[in-house]
Amino acid sequence: MRAGFREDDAVESPRCDDEHAASHAWRDAAEARVAGGRHRSERQRRRAFELVREVRSEGVPVTVLTFFNHAGGVAKTSTVRDIGYVLGEMGKRVLLIDVDPQANLTKWMGVEDDIALSQTIYPAVIGDPDMEEGTEDADVELTLPEPLHVHGVDLIPSHLNVAIVEREILSIFMGVMRLREAVRRLEGYDFVLLDPPPSLGQLSALAVVAADRVVVPLPTNRKGLDGIPTVIKMVREYRKAARELSIALFVLTQHDRRTRHDRESLEIIQSQLKAFAPISTPLNSRPAYYSDAQVEGVPIPLYAPGSIADEEIRVVTAELVAALGGSDDG
Ligand SMILES: Nc1ncnc2c1ncn2[C@@H]1O[C@H](COP(=O)(O)OP(=O)(O)O)[C@@H](O)[C@H]1O
Ligand SMILES: [Mg+2]
C-alpha cells in the first residue's frame, strides 16, 4: 500500500497566500474562471438532478450515510457540510447529524448559539439529560430532538458535553444500536448524513452502525493511504451490528496535484481501491476557500457559488448519488 514513497516526495506546503488572494477575488474572477467550464458545469448539474430523481423514483426510503474515517483532518466534516448542502439545494430533504463533541459541523454551518445536551444526539442514545438518574421510564421511546434549520437543511447539533456518551453508552445493553434505531424512526427525510469524531470510540461506532452505507473521505496522500486498511477492517467489524453495511464511495479530498506525492497517491488509491467501492473525482486542495467558508459559517457552494470548488462538490455529490443507485461489496 505504501508503494515506495521516497523521502524527497514529501508534500510541499500549499501556497496559502496565493489561495487566499484567489478566494477573496472569487467574485470578480468567477466569470473568467468558469467561462469555458460553464457548459460542462451545467451539464453536470443537470445530470446530478436526474440522478437524484432516479434514486427517488425507485421508491428508496431515507438513505442514512455516515462519513467515516478514524483519522482526523481528512475532510469528513467538510464533505458532510458541502454534500449535505448540495443535496438540500437540489430539493432533497436532508438531516445532518453532528456526532463529534468538537462540534465542527455545528460551527461551520454557522450555528453560534449555546447548544444544550437535549438538542444533541444525547436524548436518542442515553435519555433525557434533565431527568435524574434512575427515574427514567424504561418504556419511554428515545428520540432525536427537534433539529435546527440551517442553509436549507436540518441539523442536530453537537456540543463538547456529548463526549460523555462515550462512557455512558458502555453500561447500556446493545447501546451501540440506539442511534440506528432513532434514525430509523425518522420520517420526512431523503438523506441523513452523520459526521462522527476522528476516533474508533463509541460515538464512531454509534454513527457507523446507524448507517445504510459508509462514505469514506480520503486525502490523496500518505495519511490517506496509511488509514485505508483500518477503515476497511472497521467497516467489516461494524457489519456485525449492521449486516447490510457497505462502502458507497471513497471521496478523495485535499488533493494537491502540484505535488508528485499526491499524484502518486491518487494513482495507488485508484488502482487499489476500485475493487472495494467506487472512487470520486478528487476534491482539490483549496485552503483559502475552506478556511474562509468555515469562518463565515457557510458551506463552500454558498461561500463561492460558481467557483471551481463549488463545481467539484457538485460533481462529487452526483457521483455519490450515482454510487447509491448501484451495488458494491465494500
Ligand atoms: N479540499 C480542501 N482543501 C483545503 N483544505 C481542506 C479541504 N477539505 C478540508 N480542508 C481542511 O482540512 C481540515 C480538516 O477538515 P475536516 O473537514 O475538519 O476533517 P475531519 O472532519 O476529517 O477532521 C479543515 O481545516 C478543512 O478546512
Ligand atoms: Mg470532523
Can you tell me about this structure?
This protein is α/β, with parallel strands linked by helices and 330 residues long. Helices cover 43% and strands 11% of the residues. A seven-stranded mixed sheet has the order 3-4-2-5-1-6-7, sandwiched between helices. A hairpin with a 2-residue loop joins strand 3 and strand 4. Helix 1 packs across helix 12, helix 3 packs parallel to helix 14 and helix 4 crosses helix 14. The radius of gyration is 20 Å and the shape is globular. The two termini are 18 Å apart. The relative contact order is 0.19. The N terminus and C terminus are likely disordered. Adenosine-5'-diphosphate binds next to helix 4 and helix 12.
Task: Find the structural class using helix and strand composition.
Answer: alpha/beta
Number of helices: 14
CATH architectural grouping: 3-Layer(aba) Sandwich
In quaternary terms, these chains amount to: single chain
Q: Please report the distance between the alpha carbons of the first and last residues.
A: 18 Å
Radius of gyration, in Å, reads 20 Å
CATH topology: Rossmann fold
Largest sheet: 7 strands, mixed
Strand content: 5-15%
Quick take:
This protein has 330 residues and is an alpha/beta fold.
